[in-house]
């Protein structure tokens, strides 16, 4: 029968002190209790570990062997306990995150960085995905978590509001409306409005289009989706309704202005309905990060 680890740790202290009184004081127990534990430890091993007299404690060959072999064994046991605890807390393992491309400018990198920083034992991978595919992929376990713009439909998942972002328009710096700090929706509707292909994100497409329902807008669909150079805006006329995250990715010559009175766009963390400790940890870290970065401020 293996000895209890508490008695073994007590023995190692006694082996250092070679004095019951000092060892008991260092451990913080009564000397008779320490003596009783050592006798029980010797009975479990079936051999003497100590030679005692009125003044001295001397290690037997078995005691000397135990002082050499016990520390690495206890260290390995401590590591095993720590590994189990960290796994139970969602701090170990692999985590795959799918995110909509528009979340890749700020939101997804910030969450991934915080997950890696706070959980060194967690291997995190994050890849952009078509927004309509993210919730189904979380639901069937192809990915562990997702970040989407808008409250995307889907069964088998839970959605948590992660961020609110103002709606505005991207436009060329030489556009007639660029001189305004805010742009009225009716004023923006007087110009061609570029909206992404609806198939890329029907929820956000419909939300942006609805802003202009009373203004008879002229919507354009870009020939090249996600053109980082924003070539179609450089005509000095076309506007692109987008969230304020576009500020971080705007190329030279392109700027962003908020739309007056427009509601917020939302970004959501998507997790499975049935959640493991890893999922709960992601949720807790995302919640803390959103608070620290004021992502949910009105």
Comma- or semicolon-separated keywords:
alpha/beta; D-Maltodextrin-Binding Protein, domain 2; 3 domains; 298 residues; Arc Repressor Mutant, subunit A; rod-shaped; two-stranded antiparallel ribbon; single chain; 40% helix; seven-stranded mixed β-sheet
Protein described:
It contains ten helices and eleven strands. It folds into three domains: 5-88, Arc Repressor Mutant, subunit A, CATH 1.10.10.10; 93-163 and 266-292, Periplasmic binding protein-like II (D-Maltodextrin-Binding Protein, domain 2), CATH 3.40.190.10; 166-264, D-Maltodextrin-Binding Protein, domain 2. It has helices at residues 5-17, 20-27, 31-45, 61-88, 107-118, 131-139, 185-188, 202-210, 246-249, 277-292, and strands at residues 50-52, 57-59, 93-100, 122-129, 145-149, 157-172, 193-194, 219-220, 240-243, 254-258, 264-272. The radius of gyration is 32 Å and the shape is rod-shaped. It has 298 residues and is of the alpha/beta class. This is LysR family transcriptional regulator. Residues 3-60 form the HTH lysR-type domain.
């Amino acid at each position: 029968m293996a000895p209890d680890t508490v008695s073994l740790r007590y023995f190692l202290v006694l082996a250092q002190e070679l004095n019951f009184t000092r060892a008991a004081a260092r451990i913080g127990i009564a000397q008779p209790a320490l003596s009783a534990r050592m006798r029980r430890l010797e009975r479990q091993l079936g051999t003497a570990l100590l030679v005692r007299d009125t003044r001295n404690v001397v290690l037997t060959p078995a005691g000397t062997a135990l002082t050499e072999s016990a520390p690495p064994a206890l260290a390995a046991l401590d590591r095993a306990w720590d590994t189990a605890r960290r796994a139970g807390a969602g701090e170990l393992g692999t985590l795959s995150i799918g995110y909509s491309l528009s979340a890749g400018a700020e939101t997804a990198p910030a969450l991934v960085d915080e997950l890696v920083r706070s959980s060194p034992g967690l291997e995190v991978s994050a890849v952009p995905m078509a927004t309509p595919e993210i919730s189904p992929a979380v639901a069937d376990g192809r990915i562990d978590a997702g970040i989407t713009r808008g409250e995307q439909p889907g069964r088998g998942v839970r959605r948590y509001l992660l961020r609110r972002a103002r709606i505005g328009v991207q436009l060329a710096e030489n556009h007639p409306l660029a001189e305004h700090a805010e742009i009225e929706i009716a004023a923006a509707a007087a110009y061609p409005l570029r909206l992404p292909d609806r198939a890329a994100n029907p929820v956000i497409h419909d939300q942006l289009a609805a802003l202009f329902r009373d203004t008879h807008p002229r919507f354009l669909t870009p020939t090249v989706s996600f053109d980082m150079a924003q070539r179609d805006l450089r005509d000095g006329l076309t506007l692109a309704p987008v969230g304020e995250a576009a500020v971080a990715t705007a190329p030279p010559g392109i700027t962003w202005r908020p739309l007056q009175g427009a509601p917020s766009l939302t970004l959501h963390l998507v997790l499975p309905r049935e959640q493991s400790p890893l999922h709960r940890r992601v949720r807790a870290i995302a919640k803390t990060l959103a608070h620290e970065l004021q992502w949910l401020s009105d």
